[in-house]
Amino acid sequence: MLKSVFLTIFSALVAIGAVAQTDVRFGNEASDTTVINGLLDSRGASQNFADPEARVAFFARSFEGTPYGAGTLEGDEEILTVRLDSLDCTTFVETAMALALTSMEQRHSWRDFVYNLKRIRYRGGEVNGYPSRLHYISDWIVDNRYRGNFADVTDQFARASYMMRTIDFMTTNRKLYPALADSANYARIRDIENGYRQHRFPYLKSRDLNLKGVKDALHNGDVVAMVSNLKNLDVTHMGVIVKESPTAEPYLLHASSTGGKVMVSAVPLADFMKRNRQWLGLRVIRLTNH
Fold first, then answer.
1. Domain carrying residue 146
2. How many other CB atoms are found less than 10 A from the CB of residue 155?
3. How far is CA 102 from CA 46, 110, 115, 142, 282, in A?
4. Are 80 and 23 in contact (CB under 8 A)?
5. pLDDT at position 22, please?
6. DSSP E strands, the chain
7. pLDDT, tens digit (0-9, with 9 covering 90-100), for 179-221
8. Of 118, 127, 161, 285, which has fewest CB within 10 angstroms of its CB?
């Protein structure tokens, strides 16, 4: 009897594992899972980090030189996608954060990483079609902050400013998003956008990033989102702050379409922002210390 029960439970667990694995699309399953396991088992990942941000910086640094690749999440079907052979600015940030979160939980399997990546990328941590992906960074922040995954700490900076913006870029530019040709997807995205009419959020103006107080308040491993100058879009780029010491100049580690790879900006953050007029400033996000 006990043997029968054990076999039933074992079969159920195997079935669950098989379903979970088929719910993930890898760039290369063998190499991607090996790299993830290796990163989570590495000596650096198990060290005592000063804070969760430093852990994010550790994992983000491991992807320096990785080729830039756009559109890796798009496909005929919305499915959790893991690609380590090429990254865009958002998938780079989400990958580093998911690895850091998994490491904080003292877990070492690619399956745990996949679970946390899904938690970060999708509304409520569940994949339910194209609109369940957190496309807008404001929506990404609100949803993850509500679930305690990370915090928007921008308003903790002495020079924080505020902006009001109606965010509806996707439906206004429907032709840019093939998935919105589907009327149900379009309607669901519009419903989401309706929650972001006159959305108020904090940001640091580009001109204030040169101030010592602001530079020193940025942590190594902070995730930053660049605020767009487009009237109906919140953010158009993301990256991770890297600093050699708490009082050192902050630089931006990011997946650069111009540079064609994950790289550290050639100039300090303040100068980098000054050279890019399409950004008005940035928001600062930090993993929650569980």
1. 25-287
2. 14
3. 11, 9, 9, 21, 26
4. yes
5. 58
6. 24-26, 80-82, 150-152, 161-165, 199-205, 223-228, 235-242, 251-256, 261-264, 279-287
7. 999 999 999 999 999 999 999 999 999 999 999 999 999 999 9
8. 161
Residue 76 identity (one-letter amino acid): D
Contacts of 13 (CB under 8 A, 6+ apart): none
> For residue 98, is pLDDT > 60?
yes
Count of domains observed in the chain: 1
- Kindly tell me the burial class for residue 136, based on how many C-beta atoms sit within 10 Å of its own C-beta (0-12, 13-18, 19 or more): buried
Name the 3-class secondary structure at 202: strand
Percent of the chain that is helix, strand, coil (3-state, to 5): 45, 20, 35
Residue 5, in any domain of the structure: no
- What local confidence, expressed as pLDDT, does residue 44 receive? 75
Is residue 16 included in any domain, yes or no? no
Q: Does residue 15 sit within a domain?
A: no
* 254-259 mean pLDDT: 97
Predicted confidence (pLDDT) per residue in 127-179, tens digit: 999 999 999 999 999 999 999 999 999 999 999 999 999 999 999 999 999 99
Query: 187: domain CATH number?
Result: 1.10.3670.10
In the chain, pLDDT over 70 holds for what percent of residues?
A: 92
Residue 67 lies in a domain: yes
From the list 135, 138, 269, the residue with the least C-alpha distance to 205 is: 269
This model's pTM is above 0.85: yes
